[in-house]
């Protein structure tokens, strides 16, 4: 590697390409693009070392709108393409843009393997709980009973819980944010970048054409405070209109408790991003918000773990062999172990 | 009785036994020893798909055929001279491949009532005793008994002792064919470095087999097969998959591009992965992906990053990779796709050979996504062909398919290997600055119609590529009808233009005009060559051309074809290359097809030559 030189500064404007953005007006993707373009200049990266890789779907048009290196690959395979790129060029900052169909249905297999290998890449999973680009079929995150063009009597599929899936695959970073909360989304994008390992960021994204309002209980002012739980490391789990509700643990059972005004109860669940067991409980705060007595939906970082990255170990093995055997000699390779001469 | 030595110019031995009997190892040991002795040779391992098929049954028989000689050898041979059988099933499965009057070396322990029953012999029938083998020279050895006897003081258990019995057979054959034991001794010392008792046992049994031949009076004849008169030089033994792996590493060094090898295990391609994973000191990165699709996609990612992206599989895996191959075609990135063909369709015959993926290679993928296709002819030719594939992929910024098959992938031959300095450099020009004034056009083309390779990390050349149709030169998304047609044709024209940068087709043997041309491709080379030599020796007018560049075809191929009255195309499929040839050159070429999972024999091709020439 060449001696590190401070990379040339660039601004959000420098990240806008000469291509017209072709998402539907009002699509949540615009906000995600905007927040990404807002935080990326501050990451201290050289623009030429940034690569966005996507699969197929509405969200996967994203790379065309980011003035970095990028590849719009094939359906479900962005994770696999990114794995090869990161394995061979570990110094690049690699971002994967995918959707609920692309990343969890056709590309579900690659997603879980990416997570367990823990390449140091960032996954932005735009979850709109619908297939948008193919015009409105249910997706693997659509709720049970979802009536769509392909399920006129309602879907009989049980949906994926993306955060639980990430934890189940031993992902080392699981977080959730939403398109309608720019500040939180920016913070989560930064956290995803800062984590060394595969950062899995699920972003609730409204498809205003085929699934409008799928997340409105979490995004609308009237319901947001009661329906969402913003996780902060080291802070108690508090939510509600006036911060009047909290979560405590009764054994393994989370219990919603009222917090009387002016009091600060000391037995609330304190969020610990490093606690895998509790992260798994939080991931199960996944009830349908129309059901009575449901838990609020958590947003923020569920879980973080430090674990070696695939590309580092891969590089280490090469370094180790080189230090033991030295650089391979082609003529020795061609010759092999046993030779004979014909006069 | 005194012992004497007969001199032979070539011998074909087939080792056959249970898949747990170590026949592949025995065959490989004899092969390597024979190679070091200076014989020309060709091998054909033939084993069941199951790792340990039911013991003693026909399904479990594993074979290894070796043809070696003091003369030039092009095939593993049609019928063997010596058949080594470790049990009755091995005899039953292979007797048809033994020539009349040939020798059978039988382990009589494998002919007990149980083994006979498992092999499907009728009650009370034993081929060693009932006259079935009349006309053959049968040598009966009680290998198990003698192995156990040799190791009675070793302290090893019966199971471990019995595992050494292939060494007895190997030792006996070394004696019979006057081969030194040193190579195998060295091999065993390395293999059992950390197990001194097992090493001692194997060495003891190996020698026991050798001395058994030496001391027993009934064995009066030894054979000597002198070194072959091959061109002078230094030789090694090479198998096709090994040659493929080495060729990739040499292309990597000659281009300065590190290899990224994304692959999913599949027979018979996995050995390339095993081989390459040992070459980390050449900077090789091997990635065992979660599936075939991830394997190729990861290689595409590496190619995008400026590395030599390689993936390999066999037919079923290649079918899974097709969509990604289309992406690579659209992106116009160098990518090496190795298809080590096997018997199909579907799972088919995983451990057997076939050439039935040609049309998949040429015409697979959705829509029109042509790419160059090269086919290797022999184990050592895999080296040159894969190297050439890398050159073309890099120079033309294109995915390319390398075809090999189970027969040459696992087969071995002596190889007068090149020096690294004999191999040409492969030029790589990463674009470093904008190529159109103050603009960068990712799909601007050179005289080869090749586009620039601008890799992430290059300042000022940030750009996006993808599978959506792109505008000429800019690479921007374009749905414009005329642009699409133009681009489809342009990408195809680029592939066709490769023909300007490859050698013209040559005849392998025979006159350049005449009655019959045999047009071959891939692993049929040895059988066709041997058949042609014999045919011409009988005064028949036959020539042989063997095609490496399957797409685009060499520019002069038509001229060659038009010079012959008949063109015969032998293929291990129901007729694939013949479709291409008839379509392109409008000639009434005749097919000769075999779809049995086993290669052509030279005799079969010779008979066909005679049949065609009688017309």
Can you count the helices of chain A? 11
Low-confidence stretches of chain A: none
N/C terminus separation of chain A = 48 Å
Structural class of chain A: alpha/beta
How would you describe this protein?
The complex is a heterodimer of chains A (about 350) and B (about 625). Chain A has 2 domains: about 10-230 and about 270-315, Thiamin diphosphate (ThDP)-binding fold, Pyr/PP domains (Rossmann fold, 3-Layer(aba) Sandwich), CATH 3.40.50; about 235-270, no CATH class. In chain A, the strands form 2 sheets. Chain A has an 8-stranded mixed β-sheet, sandwiched between helices. A 3-stranded antiparallel β-sheet of chain A has the order 8-9-10. The relative contact order of chain A is 0.11. In chain A, α1 (about 30-40) packs across α6 (about 180-195) and α3 crosses α4 (about 110-115). By secondary structure, chain A is an alpha/beta fold. Chain A is globular and about 95 Å long. Chain A has helices spanning about 30-40, 80-90, 100-105, 110-115, 160-170, 180-195, 215-220, 220-225, 275-285, 310-325, 330-335; strands spanning about 50-55, 70, 95-100, 120-125, 175-180, 200-205, 230, 240, 245-250, 255-260, 295-305, 340. The longest helix of chain A has 16 residues, at about 310-325. Chain A has 11 helices and 12 strands. Chain B is of the alpha/beta class. Chain B has a 7-stranded mixed β-sheet with strand order 11-10-12-13-15-14-21, with helices on both faces. A 6-stranded mixed β-sheet of chain B has the order 3-4-2-5-6-7, with helices on both faces. Chain B folds into 4 domains: about 5-225, 3-Layer(aba) Sandwich (Pyruvate-ferredoxin Oxidoreductase, domain 3), CATH 3.40.920.10; about 235-420, Thiamin diphosphate (ThDP)-binding fold, Pyr/PP domains (Rossmann fold, 3-Layer(aba) Sandwich), CATH 3.40.50; about 430-500, no CATH class; about 505-615, 3-Layer(aba) Sandwich (Rossmann fold). Chain B is globular, with a radius of gyration of 27 Å. The interface between A and B is large, with 60 and 70 residues.
């Amino acid at each position: 590697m060449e001696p590190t030189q401070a990379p040339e500064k660039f601004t959000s404007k420098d990240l806008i390409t000469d291509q017209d953005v072709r998402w539907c007006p009002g699509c949540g993707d615009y906000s995600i693009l905007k927040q990404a373009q807002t935080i990326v200049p501050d990451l201290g990266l050289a623009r030429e070392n940034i690569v966005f890789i996507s699969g197929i779907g509405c969200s996967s048009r994203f790379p065309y709108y980011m003035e970095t290196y990028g590849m719009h690959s094939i359906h479900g395979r962005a994770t696999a393409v990114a794995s090869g790129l990161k394995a061979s060029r570990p110094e690049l900052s690699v971002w994967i843009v995918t959707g609920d169909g692309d990343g969890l249905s056709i590309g579900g297999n690659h997603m879980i393997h990416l997570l367990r290998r823990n390449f140091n890449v960032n996954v932005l999973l735009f979850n709109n709980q619908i297939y948008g680009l193919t015009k409105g079929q249910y997706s693997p995150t659509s709720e049970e009973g979802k009536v769509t063009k392909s399920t006129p009597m309602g879907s009989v599929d049980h949906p994926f819980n993306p955060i639980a899936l990430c934890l189940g695959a031993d992902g080392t970073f699981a977080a959730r944010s939403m398109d309608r909360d720019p500040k939180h989304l920016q913070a989560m994008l930064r956290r995803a970048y800062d984590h060394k390992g595969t950062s899995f960021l699920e972003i609730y994204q409204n498809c205003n054409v085929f699934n409008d309002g799928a997340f409105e209980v979490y995004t609308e002012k009237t319901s947001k405070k009661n329906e969402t739980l913003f996780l902060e490391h080291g802070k108690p789990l508090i939510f509600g209109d006036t911060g009047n509700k909290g979560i405590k643990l009764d054994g393994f059972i989370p219990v919603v408790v009222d917090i009387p005004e002016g009091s600060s109860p000391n037995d609330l669940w304190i969020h610990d991003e490093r606690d895998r067991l509790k992260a798994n409980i939080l991931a199960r705060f996944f009830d349908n918000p129309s059901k009575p007595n449901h838990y609020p939906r958590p947003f923020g970082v569920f879980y973080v773990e430090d674990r070696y990255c695939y590309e580092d170990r891969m590089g280490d093995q090469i370094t180790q062999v080189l230090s033991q055997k030295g650089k391979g000699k082609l003529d020795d390779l061609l010759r092999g172990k046993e030779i004979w001469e014909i006069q | 009785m005194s012992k004497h030595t007969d001199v032979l110019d070539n011998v074909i031995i087939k080792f056959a036994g249970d898949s747990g009997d170590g026949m592949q190892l025995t065959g490989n040991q004899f092969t390597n020893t024979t190679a070091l002795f200076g014989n020309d040779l060709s091998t054909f391992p033939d084993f069941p798909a199951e790792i340990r098929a039911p013991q003693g049954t026909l399904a479990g028989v594993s074979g290894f055929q070796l043809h070696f000689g003091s003369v030039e050898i092009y095939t593993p041979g049609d019928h063997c001279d010596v058949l080594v059988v470790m049990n009755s099933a091995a005899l039953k499965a292979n007797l048809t491949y033994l020539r009349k009057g040939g020798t059978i070396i039988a382990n009589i322990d494998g002919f007990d009532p149980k083994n006979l029953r498992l092999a499907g012999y009728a009650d009370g029938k034993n081929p060693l005793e009932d006259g079935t083998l009349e006309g053959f020279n049968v040598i009966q050895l009680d290998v198990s008994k003698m192995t156990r006897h040799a190791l009675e003081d070793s302290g090893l258990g019966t199971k471990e002792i019995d595992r050494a019995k292939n060494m007895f057979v190997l030792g006996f054959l070394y004696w019979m064919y006057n081969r030194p034991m040193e190579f195998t001794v060295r091999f065993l010392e390395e293999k059992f470095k950390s197990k001194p008792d097992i090493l001692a046992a194997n060495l003891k049994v190996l020698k026991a087999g050798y001395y058994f031949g030496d001391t027993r009076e009934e064995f009066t004849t030894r054979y000597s097969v002198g070194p072959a008169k091959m061109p002078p030089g230094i030789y090694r033994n090479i198998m096709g998959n090994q040659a493929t792996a080495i060729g990739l590493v040499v292309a990597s060094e000659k281009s300065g591009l590190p290899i990224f090898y994304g692959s999913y295990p599949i027979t018979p391609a996995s050995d390339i992965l095993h081989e390459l994973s040992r070459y980390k000191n050449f900077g090789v990165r091997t990635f065992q992906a979660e599936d075939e699709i991830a394997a190729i996609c990861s290689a595409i990612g590496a190619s995008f990053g400026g590395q030599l992206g390689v993936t390999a599989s066999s037919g079923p895996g290649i079918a899974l990779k097709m969509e990604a191959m289309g992406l690579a075609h659209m992106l116009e990135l160098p990518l090496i796709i190795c298809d080590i063909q096997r018997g199909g369709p579907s799972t088919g015959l995983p451990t057997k050979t076939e050439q039935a993926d040609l049309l998949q290679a040429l015409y697979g993928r959705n829509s029109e996504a042509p790419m160059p296709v090269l086919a290797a002819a022999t184990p050592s030719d895999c080296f040159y062909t894969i190297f050439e594939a890398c050159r073309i992929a890099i120079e033309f910024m294109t995915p390319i398919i390398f075809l090999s098959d189970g027969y040459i992938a696992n087969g071995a031959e002596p190889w007068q290997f090149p020096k690294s300095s004999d191999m040409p450099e492969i030029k790589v020009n990463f674009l470093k600055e904008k190529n159109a004034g103050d603009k960068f056009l990712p799909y601007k083309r050179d005289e080869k119609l090749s586009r620039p390779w601008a890799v992430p990390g290059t300042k000022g050349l940030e750009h996006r590529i993808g599978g959506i149709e792109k505008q000429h030169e800019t690479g921007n998304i374009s749905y414009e009808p005329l642009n699409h047609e133009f681009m489809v044709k342009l990408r195809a024209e680029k592939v066709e233009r490769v023909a300007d940068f490859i050698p013209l087709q040559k005849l392998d043997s025979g006159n350049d005009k005449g009655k019959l041309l045999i047009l071959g491709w891939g692993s049929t080379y040895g059988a066709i060559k041997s058949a042609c030599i014999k045919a011409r020796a009988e005064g028949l007018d036959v020539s042989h051309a063997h095609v490496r560049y399957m797409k685009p075809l060499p520019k002069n191929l038509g001229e060659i074809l038009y010079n012959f009255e008949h063109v015969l195309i032998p293929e291990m499929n129901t007729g694939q290359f013949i479709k291409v040839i008839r379509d392109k050159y409008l000639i009434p070429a005749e097919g000769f097809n075999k779809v049995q999972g086993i290669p052509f024999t030279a005799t079969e091709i010779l008979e066909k030559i005679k049949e065609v020439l009688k017309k």
